[in-house]
Amino acid sequence: TTYTHHFDTATFKGDVTLNTGLFINGQWVDPVEGGTIDVIDPTTGKVITSVAGATSGDVDRAVEAAEKASKTTWGLKMPGGQRGRLISKLADLIEKYQDELSALEALNVGKTFNDAKGLDLNGVIGTLRYFAGWADKIHGKTIETTDKKMAYTRHEPFGVVGCIVPWNFPLMMAAWKLGPALATGNAVVLKPSEITPLTALRLADLVNEAGFPPGVLNILPGYGPKAGQAIAEHPKIRKVAFTGSTLTGRKILKAASETNLKVVTLELGGKSPTIIFDDADLDQTLKWAAGGIFTNMGQSCVAASRIFVQESIYQNFLEKFVALAQNLTDHTGSPFDPKTRHGPQVSQTQFDRVMGFINSGKQDGAKVLIGGERHGQEGYFVKPTVFTDVNPKMSIMQDEIFGPVCSVVKFKTEEGEFIRISWFSAMINRFLIEVLELANDVAYGLGANVFTENASRAIRVSNALEAGSVWRFSFYKINCAQATEFCVPFGGYKQSGIGRDLGQYALDMYTQVKGVHINI
Ligand code: NAD
């Protein structure tokens, strides 16, 4: 079955047709149990269409196809350069259809068409091209141990890899997995989020158009506890690459450990800090701080929901920051209106979750400076929300909200005073715990942002932060966009994950190394 969506908007006009079945072995098939998933438009709460929902029987079929491909046509049966050309071809086709794909992403996620194109699709195309280039550059070493003995190493694909991705950047998160998985010669079973399956379904047709052998990439929309769990448990899947919440990450790790002990990499949640020292360029910093939390309506794993501002600029920052939040509120609306800068949360569940956090902040005694309520009567819109007067133990300061909600906190110093006067009473020590301790005082460690014109302080603070990525020292004066540097590894410290996406480092996540020993 197919579904055609007719777009007649200011930013995109045209019909987009996609198959709504399961993509297994290069073909569209119906799910064995006949399950379906309703896909919702978050700006209205109405059903767009329904698509097939996979269950464990479908995962079995997909794994069988993938295993066959990995042994007969793909993996070490196809030269790396040829694999790379297919991945490049796929990137070219995605570029060709980027407006269609951006429109689907905007429709299904609620992000603006312009963001979908500028951030998501750009990221997808760039990631695939980056990894396409690696496909013929994966090789081992020779190691001579004595003049009578040598060994060589091989970086071999796992065979079948399961990729489970979330709804916030649906196609981009898929590309972060597919790029390195395919470049290293693995065959893939990809499960998009049940909330946002549309772009992955459109991608499937492009996989065939690019000319991949059947079974190399299988795409199965399905619910997490059904299709996702079946992937995590499957005995013939040797590696699972997951992006999503920490709670689901734990379930996948457990399932893997209790079945075939598959290799698991996890990109999980975050509670990222933005730290602004009083020497930073305030106008630049304001824009970055607002982008850090409000981009994608706060539905970003690196959303910087804790903003620490040095005391002498705190009041000034706050006034201007609230004005930026107001500006976003004034530009809330349809993702297809070119003036829109703020859209809805992705689903009713996420809307309820974010409103729950806003209410918990209010109940805990934090002050709402702006926002703190829904926007309009239809859809899942939440106003950009800024809290002050928080304490570090409040839920809004500890838990991932995944919405347009942040707290602004005043600090005095980088650190040091805590140590220097530590012989004072315990109360004074607590009072003087300063920004580094505060920034690191969460279970997560995904991203962090530091703004200062002082280079040594920028480096000192970046090194002391417990985070997998640190961005945007303003002294560089460059446009340092988050997470789109394809050559730089991305991933979490602490409970933000295991392993890395992107960069050369990602190749190691999709290969296993063999040492072959030879007596000469
Ligand atoms: P989620 O964990 O609910 O779902 C993610 C995926 O896991 C979906 O495809 C879902 O169907 C699947 N899933 C759910 N239960 C499963 C199970 N028992 N077994 C196997 N698969 C299962 O997360 P979400 O709500 O889709 O996404 C939001 C989360 O993703 C946030 O916590 C966010 O921080 C995180 N995220 C992290 C990164 C990163 O790179 N670190 C990037 C984007 C999003």
From TrEMBL:
Keywords: Fatty acid metabolism, Isomerase, Lipid metabolism, Oxidoreductase. GO terms for biological process: fatty acid metabolic process. Coiled coil: none annotated. It comes from the Eukaryota. The keyword Ion transport does not apply. Residues 28-515 form the Aldehyde dehydrogenase domain. GO terms for molecular function: aldehyde dehydrogenase [NAD(P)+] activity; isomerase activity. The keyword Lipid metabolism applies. Pathway: Lipid metabolism; fatty acid beta-oxidation. The active site is at 267. Belongs to the aldehyde dehydrogenase family. This is Aldehyde dehydrogenase domain-containing protein. The chain holds residues 325 to 844 of 848 of the full protein.
